[in-house]
Amino acid sequence: MSAKVDTSLPLEYQTEQDRMNILGFWVFLGAEIVLFATLFGVYGVLYERYAGGPTHKDIFVIKDVMIQTVLLLTSSFTMGIAIFEMRRHNLKGLITWLVITLALGAGFLFMEINEFIHYAHEGATMQTSAFLSSLFVLLGTHGAHVTLGIGWATMVIIQLLKRGLTPTTARKTFIIGLYWHFLDVVWIFIFTFVYLKGLVA
Amino acid sequence: MGIKWDEFFITGDPLILGSQIAILLTMIGAVAAITYLKKWKYLWTEWLTTVDHKKIGIMYIISAVLMFFRGGMDGLLMKAQTARPEMEFLNSQHYNEIFTTHGVIMILFMAMPFLIGLMNVVIPLQIGARDVAFPQLNALSFWLFFSGAMLFNISFVIGGSPDAGWTSYFPLAGKEFSPGIGNNFYAVALQIAGIGTLMTGINFIVTILKMRTKGMTLMKMPMFTWTTFVTSILIVAAFPIFTVALALMTFDRLYGTHFFTVSGGGMDMLWANLFWLWGHPEVYIVALPAFGIFSEVIATFSRKSLFGYKSMVFSILGIALLSMVVWVHHFYTMGSGPAVNSFFSITTMAIAIPTGVKMFNWLFTMRKGRIKITSAMLWALAFVPCFVIGGVTGVMLAMGAADYQYHNTLFLVAHFHYVLIPGVVFAVFAGLYYWWPKMFGFMLNEKIGKWHFWLFVIGFNVTFMPMFFLGLNGAVRRAYTYSAESGFAPLFMLSAIGSIILAAGFAVFCYNIYWSIRYADRNISSDPWDARTLEWSTASPVQFYNFAKLPEVKSLDPFWHMKKKNEGLTLFDSEIEEIHMPSNSWLPIYMGVIFGIAGFLLVFEWHIAAAVAAIGIFAGLIIRSFDYNEGFHVKKDEIHRIENAWRKTEGEVHDHVS
């Protein structure tokens, strides 16, 4: 609560309130892990229940999924560079890399929306079978998180432009960084257990 | 879509018509009274926009008492309906709605907020902090809970109540068998309240980890703080499961997916598993803080340190861990097979071990103590035998093979009421009597409190003890009536009489609040019970910044030792520093309102309108992101004034214990 500033620490950790916010966000990510674990569990129960509808092999286009994966994994890397620039107090570099990150995220989203449209054309919608219900909700939840992340990071960029690098804006940037990496980790699981497993099954 | 306009308001039932009129009159009356007394500004600045953990706690408790009344009414209606065989007081549909809302309201809108309210009031004080880690998030938690509770409650006058049981098992809860919008209320209202609860869990984890005062190591924390901490971890681990389950239910009901519907390859048992994966930890989410309250009350009124502190801590952790791996015991009869049932039988019975350790610790705390029989202590004393009955019948139910006999009978209903009423309701009453003077600066009347206690405890036993025997004789739960030939009539009648005594106890409780507000002595000590923990070392009611100087802790029961050694109690002028406090905010209540509106529209499946309302949610989030309000500083002069006001009166107060 006190406004004591410890300048020996990185910018985002300098006040007690900022340290608490970061810890709180880690705890929130714990809750997010449970949330996605539940969705994976649901998918694991329902993934072979095609109900006469299309199967994994009928709808998945592995090339497009590879592009999505590369886009998102690269965006996680660029997010890492952004935080690195922040630690170097390089505001311009930070914002540049953040924008690149969001552009890659938007590219991922564009691909994912196209993927959904493609599925719908194949007659694979959320209402077709239990498999597709669980697939769409798992992918959709991840996609919604990415969308939210883009909107949120845009707000943070505006604040960085307005206020420069302060302990508060640094903390906000750091937290969105954590969030972005988390979405990347979730995607690795989706890529492995949904797409790859679906194609070799 | 969904609903016809002529079905918007529930009509045709005199009971509901009466409620509608009563609600309307109460609302008009409340608005008129506030306007007449010119209290709108006071209400807005002091309560609705507050971020003070103590006021938020009090608002939680007020809501919980109101919900207790609502849930209790449902209970009384059920008891009236089953008092005689073949009664025609309620029809089957109405009965279904009432047992559903009774369950949901009592667990999620009474037990949870009551405990979270006490946690809010007490925890920052017990750990010597000035607020929780995220005060504004805390207010948001409250308003989301309140919004969810109100949305759920209006279902019985607008649109229709959910009627598939508080567990809302599929396929019954699906669109096919529950085509009305009642169960949409369940899915959406609980979702909104659940987000609030999750935020509370995160908030208290960080608060307890990061904001303990100097010297308070984890193993020097008061037991209520420990249980709150572990409960918060359970909330974070369990509530997201419920979030997903409710979201999937919403998808199934609103958008035609096939998670739980049997057609299209869905699995109805998936719901049962997800529900109880959250639902069983939920039982301990409400039970653990209650255990913490009993620990505080028993130690204080036995005038001894809590016996077996370390074993208490490890028991709590053990219970929390086991609570995650017992969920299948809720549906042994649904065909999981003997191996699975055996595993879950063993884990379930294992929970009796740490719980038993706690029981003995409480008993040993009392041993050789100089016990003071106050109202709060009475609740703790009654808790021990009553909860043991609930626990032992729980071990009976834990046996997978034997459970085939008890499953879905009133034996089970009696069991969980014997766990939840002594385990939670007795605890919140004990906590309320105990901490009331800290919250308001006057005490609840002890004499009326004893009436409340005896009526409630006797009524509780008379209501639920017969249900064990009814259940063993084959009376099933959730049945709206039974035949005269069944022979159930006398015990059902006895149970109904018990519920009236129980209700009388609750009425006396309400009267006690009224009496105490009007007549209780205001000139009391800030430490009327001669208590042991830090919340009693500051003023009653607590000044908004909690502590002028943050206390330093050297041992367990820190305040007790401060009093014994007479150190750290006086405040020197040189020690006063400016205090930084957070500002009030209108955003949390705005978010509550907008979530309520969006939720309501979603319940009625007006998707476009709901989406428009959801823009309001995002607007709130964006405003919050750009909010750089740094709070304010309390000046030294003001702290001087406030501290002198309560410290001067010390020593010349009336003695209230004994």
TrEMBL record, chain A:
Subcellular localization: Cell membrane
Q: Which UniProt keywords apply?
A: Cell membrane, Membrane, Oxidoreductase, Transmembrane, Transmembrane helix
InterPro entries cross-referenced by the UniProt entry? Cyt_c/ubiquinol_Oxase_su3, Cyt_c_oxidase-like_su3, Cyt_c_oxidase_su3-like_sf, Cyt_c_oxidase_su3_a-hlx, QoxC, Ubiquinol_oxase_su3_dom
- The answer, when asked if ATP-binding is one of the entry's keywords, is no
Q: What is its main location?
A: membrane
Q: Name one GO biological process term.
A: aerobic electron transport chain
Membrane topology value: Multi-pass membrane protein
Describe the reaction catalysed, as an equation. Answer: 2 a quinol + O2 = 2 a quinone + 2 H2O
- Kindly list the GO CC terms recorded for this protein: plasma membrane
EC number(s) stated in the UniProt entry for this protein: 1.10.3.-
Residues of the signal sequence?
A: none
Class in the EC hierarchy, top level: oxidoreductase
Q: Which residues form the Heme-copper oxidase subunit III family profile domain?
A: 23-199
Family to which the UniProt record says this protein belongs: Belongs to the cytochrome c oxidase subunit 3 family.
What is the protein's name according to its record? Quinol oxidase subunit 3
Species per Swiss-Prot/TrEMBL record = Cytobacillus firmus
UniProtKB/TrEMBL annotation, chain B:
> What GO molecular-function term can you cite, just one?
heme binding
Keywords, comma-separated and alphabetical: Cell membrane, Copper, Electron transport, Heme, Hydrogen ion transport, Ion transport, Iron, Membrane, Metal-binding, Oxidoreductase, Respiratory chain, Translocase, Transmembrane, Transmembrane helix, Transport
What Gene Ontology cellular component terms go with this record? plasma membrane; respiratory chain complex
Q: Which GO terms describe its biological process?
A: electron transport coupled proton transport; oxidative phosphorylation; respiratory electron transport chain
State the PROSITE patterns in the record.
COX1, COX1_CUB
Q: Which reaction does it catalyse?
A: 2 a quinol + O2 = 2 a quinone + 2 H2O; 4 Fe(II)-[cytochrome c] + O2 + 8 H(+)(in) = 4 Fe(III)-[cytochrome c] + 2 H2O + 4 H(+)(out)
This chain's protein is named Quinol oxidase subunit 1
Write down the species: Cytobacillus firmus
